[in-house]
Amino acid sequence: MTAAPGLGGRRARVVDLTAGPLARGIVLFALLLLGAALIQLLYSTVDLMFVGHVLGTGAAAAVGASGLVVTCLVGIFTGLGTGTGVLIAGHFGAGRHNEVERVMHTALTFGLAGGLVLIPVMIALAPALMARLGTPPEIVPSAVVYLRIYLLGLVSVVLFNMGSGVLRALGDSLTPMRCQLVGGVVNVLVDALFIVVLRWGIGGAAVATLLSQTLAAGLVLLALRRLDERYRLRLSRFHLHPVTLREILAIGLPAGAQALVITLSNVAVQYRINALGIWDIAAFTVWFRVENFMYMPIMALGQAASTCVAQNLGAEDRPRTRRAVRACCLIGAVVTVVLAGALLVGVRPVLGLFTADPEVIARGTTIARIVAPCYVLFALMEVVSSSIRGAGRALPPMIIVVSALCGLRVVLLMALPRVFGTVGRVALLYPLSWVVTDTALLVYLLARRRLLWGDAPAAR
């Protein structure tokens, strides 16, 4: 490992994924990613804990109903961040520092401009979006308030995610975690102030998240300004370099489209959930928060796999690339089995952290018993698709995931609405779609194994 400037001017430990013990490097890099992701969960998790216990089940359902709209928007820019990270990791692994600097400034400029354009548009559309999702009329006003305030922080969310992606592509996953920790602590304190003390209601929860996310984004940008002189962030260098932007979009647009379509398929699921009633909405809202503690380790491994593949292909070390993908798959399987077992043992107390309603807990338990044992399938899907993207091929995993994962869910919900009329049956959609997607990804990988295993140059 080497040192790089971190938060507050200190030297952050950077994991070099092109040298040293491979499994140790992947685990350390993924653990730091996981730490940042778990801290990020504080934004939504603490909101829900305060809202569910202080404001009640209706307010918790309103947070859940509005959350998918935000996820759609963030998913687009997360995909662009994926394209940015793959390019930067490849250039960094090959020692092309001028290209690292060019990709970073182009990506941040595009993200900033896109966020500023979308904020007023989405604020104006918020009521119509909530109505189109089939949100129960009694919680629409609260959902709109939460969504509109949250949207004011969209630029902060975009800049934090893209800036953190740059640091991680360079091998520094510690600094984003530190920035998230500061923002997470502030979020808890401000939530208590706005909801419990000042009684601002659901708007107070959204304002707390807005302030904490803005702080975290500012800290990440500060860290980028303290990078190596050859590729540090400079305000004077903010620009859209056409060729670099096309390279980012070539990887980022398919990844962003994939994230968007996944979320839209979840919107279709949410539409079905909204038709079931407030208790079912609240149960899925609570479950999605709990599920994040399994989802985040898997996403961290996926990001580690993508970065490791891109760096090692940039360094032209294909045997190490092959070992990295296998190691990530094995680690993902072990982690998900352990976490799923622990969750199933204590599912009721865990759900009770977010709601005191026994009916919500009972329905949430039903969801957990169906979905949690199958999460190893999701881990395999994430590692394999991220590895393919890390090799510069973003379109194939997008087509597979959109068709097999999202298309299946939407088709089944539309074709068989009466069959999926209970919480348990809607939950079955998730493991069923994972099986189909995993099969398609593995078939593609075996058919194109030279992409990672062979001697042909990686696509860029």
UniProtKB/TrEMBL annotation:
NCBIfam families noted in UniProt: matE
PANTHER family: MULTIDRUG RESISTANCE PROTEIN YPNP-RELATED (PTHR43549)
Stated name of the protein: MATE efflux family protein
Gene Ontology cellular component terms for the protein in this record: plasma membrane
Record-annotated membrane-spanning stretches: 21-43, 63-94, 106-129, 149-169, 181-202, 208-227, 327-347, 367-385, 397-416, 428-447
Source species: Propionibacterium acidifaciens F0233
Entry superkingdom: Bacteria
GO MF: antiporter activity; xenobiotic transmembrane transporter activity
Chief localization: membrane
Subcellular location: Cell membrane
Pfam families the record matches: MatE
Keywords: Cell membrane, Membrane, Transmembrane, Transmembrane helix, Transport
Membrane topology field: Multi-pass membrane protein
